[in-house]
Amino acid sequence: MAGARLLAGLTSPWSVGFSSFGLAYGAYHIWDSTQSGSKYDLHEDLTGKTYIVTGATSGIGQSTAEELAKRNARVIMACRNREKCVQVRRDIVLNTRNKQVYCRQCDLEDFDSIRTFVQKLSKGKFELDRIDGIVHNAAMMSNERKVNKEGIEKTIATNHLGSFLLTGLLMDKLLEQTNPVRIVFLNSNIIDRKCDLKLEDLNSEHAKKFDGYEVYKHSKLASAIFSKELSERVKDTNISVIVADPGRTKSNLSAQMDGQTFFLSRWLLKIVSFGMGERRTEKAVRPVLYALCDPETKDENGLFIDRERHTQPWSEIVLNEESRKNLWNVSVSWSRLAQHLQKLREDIGDAAIQMSETPTVQNSASGKSWKTLWLW
């Protein structure tokens, strides 16, 4: 009789339901542990150090800002949407008890916004006494072609040209510092998958149909080429450059794509991403922190690391010096770097002199300057 009751209890809907839930949760936990990659935690105390993180209101950018704040760093959240930034910043401060987290508006598709951002960091009440690292995280993907006020397609403007201009405008300030500076670009191994630099159609004007994913791939390839070229130019200075691939990560990057606008396709994509090992941002941030702050990468430059923090090879097109030089020259022109630098120097009180005549700040250790780095 007692055995019958026990059997009935074990086979009841409630018992079966709870058992199934436990098995499913255990299976998910095991799967999540295997997909998270090797364990890593940054143990550095970052007190007194300052980091700029672009696109810090969501995804890996938000996780990066919070992890830096946990370790007592001063964090500048460079974000397009200031209202959203204020909300996210409040949560980070509450979670970390670090009040040295600041919102600064910087829209990477708007080149004037980038110059204003750098201007505020260079002079006035928001001036920074030092910068120890920059995380180029902000990125976008769109299902239709849109242009900024300069007439430049927004994906290439945000994912490459904005980072190019921001780095260029900060270069004088970085070079005159005595402390080492690490610049980290987030990228992906998708740049190795049937991806080529379409320099003749960088603005995505001539394709029969706009393919947002393909345009995104090409913009990330452009970013990788810039990163590699920058790493070559900053050799023997206080600046180093590393590219980090966080792997497939849960984010809202593709939220505007067609597949995300329909309920059924959105859930199918989630299932596929789950099966392919999509990671949570708190796990995906590991290679970013490793590249930005870990003592092991202190003297490294020009690396491309994967989600497990292992060095991965660059593609042939990234290693091609002519391709890098051609993209660099186009980027200088399209971003109007010279004009923005001159306007920046006027705004912060420096003499407004043509760039060819401008005395440039030289790094004391290498003798390199903004001009020799950007215009060689």
TrEMBL record:
Gene3D superfamilies: NAD(P)-binding Rossmann-like Domain. The keyword Oxidoreductase applies. InterPro entries: NAD(P)-bd_dom_sf, SDR_fam. Signal peptide: none annotated. One of its GO terms (molecular function) is oxidoreductase activity. Keywords: Oxidoreductase. This is Uncharacterized protein. It comes from Caenorhabditis angaria.
